[in-house]
Sequence to fold (464 residues):
Amino acid sequence: MLATLARKIVYPAHERLMRRPTMAYFTELEHSQWLSRDEVELLQMRKLSELLELAANHCPWHANRIDAAGIELGEGAPLPTIEDLRRLPTMTKHDAVENGERIAWHDAPGGAFKYNTGGSSGQPLIFYFGRWRQASDAAGRIRARRWWGVNLGDREVYLWGAPVELSKTDRVKTIRDRLLNQLVLNAFDMSPKRMDEYVTAIEAFNPKCIYGYASSIALLAAHIQERGLKVRLPSLKVVCATGEPLYSHQRALIEAVFGVPAANEFGSRDIGFTAHETPERQMLLMSESIILEVLDGAGKPVSPGQLGEAVMTGLCSQAQPFIRYRTGDMVRLTDAVCKAGRGLHVIEDVLGRSTDFVVRSDGTIMHALAVIYAIRAVEGVVEFKFIQHHVDRVEILIVPNGRWRADAEQAMVHGLSQRLGADVIIDVRLVEAIAPEASGKYRYVVSHVPLEAGLNIVRYDAQA
Fold:
């Protein structure tokens, strides 16, 4: 009964109250996924035409680039093509940081709302999002859950850690979560004792879906395995991992412990929900909301199946258009078709970037985003690397920009001390650049503190 109430009344009413067209867009997505590939790409070009015209009219930074590229827009103009789109220069995080106000459309329908990226790419970004972007993310996830037999309103557990989800005093949100059949558990506080409590709570809740950071879910699975526990979740259909790559050893661990498939989700705060894995083990792009290009180091398209950088155009990013945006994620896009008959594009592989865990002196294990949030709250940070040498000693490398102030270091230390403990020595060093690991991959949070015996299986292997 609660699932039906959430699906038919509570969630639709909530989205209407928030002025988000989520349910209408979900209805569109349920239909458009079954279009042919050619029809999907035609739909992309129609939405691209609308986005480019919007950007030309309301976003001066984009308007200058569109004009310089000579792209014809307006009444009577032909639909743009992918070749027309590629006449525009790519957009970088630096562009978004330095030109944010000239990119944003503050009068976008429903408003424009300031947000920060999680910063796990090492480059924190303040940007604006609108109601259509929110609706696109939510509707895309609802559709993807249905691929796995999980409907809107079914019981879901969130192993999560964004500040809004961590507010223990927000009774309104707690009530809303329960009405929506959601149980939110704190990924920033995963001591062995707390994880024992999580297992009990999850079993009592008996969800159809568990959703959270890939490494945090793997950590919980490793804890369950180490304790020799057998979880009983008769309703569980899928474990959805997000926020970072889901490595093969993590997938195997999660599936063995929870007894259901693990499905990978691909997305980011700035671009939004991007792709999700199907029961046929294919990663499908949310093609109705995103155009994905895969480029080599020279900015040229790679052949299908070849590795390259994901460059995305967010077709629902009206409040701050992301057009040919370099995400920094490495992917392979294939020309394969969906095995279930959908016209959506298929992503062969997502390498992405990885975070690590941070361990407090009391044994509490925190997801890396716990410290990332504290670092990104300080202005003037271009890139960073957090290194935990010991439970009571950490080092932070900072590449600053012109917004860095004399009191920034003190503010950063204060924020991190609240997360890590007042007894931790925090050494902040300003540097000109941060080098990648020996493997060539970038790691922005690194901990050299060993986890409890049996839990190191969830660690990211720098040599992988």
The chain has a mean pLDDT of 89. The longest strand covers residues 325-334. The longest helix spans residues 37-58.
